[in-house]
Specification:
Blueprint lengths: L1 E5 H12 L13 E6 L3 E7 L3 E8 L8 E4 L1 E6 H10 L4 E6 L4 E6 L2 E6 L17 E4 L1 H11 L14 E7 L2 E7 L3 E8 L8 E6 H10 L7 E5 L3 E6 L2 E6 L18 E6 H15 L7 E6 L4 E8 L3 E6 L4 E4 L2 E5 L1 H9 L5 E6 L6 E5 L5 E6 L6
Antiparallel strand pairs: 1-5, 1-7, 2-3, 2-6, 3-4, 4-17, 7-8, 8-9, 10-15, 11-12, 11-14, 12-13, 13-26, 15-16, 16-17, 18-22, 18-24, 19-20, 19-23, 20-21, 24-25, 25-26
Helix pairs in contact: 1-2, 3-4, 5-6
Subunit structure: Forms a ring-shaped head-to-tail homodimer around DNA.
Family: Belongs to the beta sliding clamp family.
Subcellular location: Cytoplasm
């Protein structure tokens, strides 16, 4: 096996594949990076059993300056190999495996010899038995992930809630996440009708890594779903993730369709006020702040206190306020995460009682997106 490549381009490709490699895995070979050279392609593979990322580099891509002199395959220690490549002195790097599983890495006057492993022992990529391909724009997919992953549970006691529930029906994709205290749901219209409906739960950690990888992606992301695996194709990269087993709880009934008090306000205005109030709530035991709404007096007030530090009160400007008078308490961190997911737009908050969950939606109703937060009992 022997190839040479432009070092700066190689570093970028390694960074993507290394997202899937963990030093904590119990399977020793998965701490390594698999390199396979064919006559005209260099294939990089990394995996941690949950996520597998494969990047295929072609000799036809002039920006890579990839030249393959001899095909072959090897698994090299991923983190160590990556650090070597980043610190090499020249912008051209040559890797050669002559005999056994030792790789010589040459760049300028520097030469490393690194012990590797047999690539035949590396787990094979899963077979994707799916004829259903769904196309989605990368910026839209990234937005859907960012808006829902904030509500993914971090508690392993209910593993199914550590994922994002993805539903494909007709020409719509629905993404839902909840940790029992809050819920995020986003629906988007797909450019083509889905022939085979899908109902899967993708780990939140997988979706977070995917969102980071497609930041600079311009072409549509292709989604394939199989029995226990999901595949995202973009550019020259394949991103596999296992699916979580089990039935996701029914969440549609949790979102109320009526309200007794409605507030329309700029998301940034409310977010900044909550951020100020949380300076005190974070010092208290319960981390709770209160929102007081009085439509008759046209009053919206945020308040918080800490027995050790003091208290804060702030009246807010708003667009509209209708319905019954209400005082409701909530976790400011949950509310802050929800407001950030909307960006700097106006939002509508709909309330029913001090103890029932309330919702936040975009004021213009053009985006089918809802955040739901469970209030905190303070008496």
């Amino acid at each position: 096996m022997k190839f040479s490549i432009k070092r700066s381009a190689f570093i970028n490709e390694l960074a993507n594949v290394l997202r899937a490699i963990s030093s904590k895995t119990t399977i020793q070979i998965l701490t390594g990076l698999k390199l396979v050279a064919t006559d005209n392609e260099l294939i990089l593979t990394g995996s941690n059993s949950d996520i597998t990322i494969q990047s295929t580099l072609s000799t036809s891509n002039g920006a890579l300056e990839l030249i393959i002199e001899e095909p072959g395959a090897i698994v090299l220690p991923a983190r160590f190999f990556n650090e070597i490549i980043k610190k090499l002195p020249d912008n051209k790097v040559t890797l050669e495996v002559k005999t056994g599983f030792q790789a010589n890495i040459i760049s300028g006057s520097a030469e490393f010899t690194v012990n590797g492993q047999d690539a035949n022992n590396y787990p094979h990529l899963p077979e994707m038995e799916s004829n259903e391909n769904v196309q989605i724009a990368p910026d839209l997919l990234r937005e859907v992930i960012d808006q829902t992953r904030i509500a993914v549970s971090k508690q392993e006691s209910r593993p199914i809630l550590t994922g994002i529930h993805v539903l494909l029906t007709s020409n719509q994709l629905t993404a839902i996440a909840t940790d029992s205290h809050r819920l995020a749901q986003r629906k988007v219209t797909l450019p083509e009708t889905v022939e085979v409906p899908a109902d899967v739960v993708i780990p939140g950690t997988s979706m977070t890594e995917l969102a980071r990888m497609i930041v600079d992606q311009n072409e549509a992301i292709e989604l394939q779903i199989a029995e226990n695996m999901v595949l995202f194709k973009f550019g020259h990269t394949l991103f596999y993730s296992r699916l979580l087993e089990g039935n996701y709880p029914e969440t549609s009934r949790l979102i109320p369709d009526t309200s007794t008090t409605d507030l329309e306000i700029d998301a940034t205005t409310l977010l900044n006020a909550i951020s100020r109030a949380s300076l005190l709530s974070h010092e208290g035991r319960n981390n709770v702040i209160k929102l007081t709404l009085n439509p008759e007096q046209k009053l919206v007030k945020i308040s918080g206190d800490s027995a050790d530090v003091g208290n804060v009160e702030e009246e807010l400007t708003f667009e509209s306020l209708d319905g019954d008078e209400l005082a409701i308490s909530f976790n400011p961190d949950y509310m802050g995460d929800a407001l950030k997911s909307f960006g700097g737009i106006k939002v509508k908050l709909a309330f029913n009682s001090p103890l029932r969950p309330f919702t936040l939606v975009p004021a213009d109703d053009e985006v089918n997106f809802v955040q739901l937060i469970t209030p905190v009992r303070t008496f």
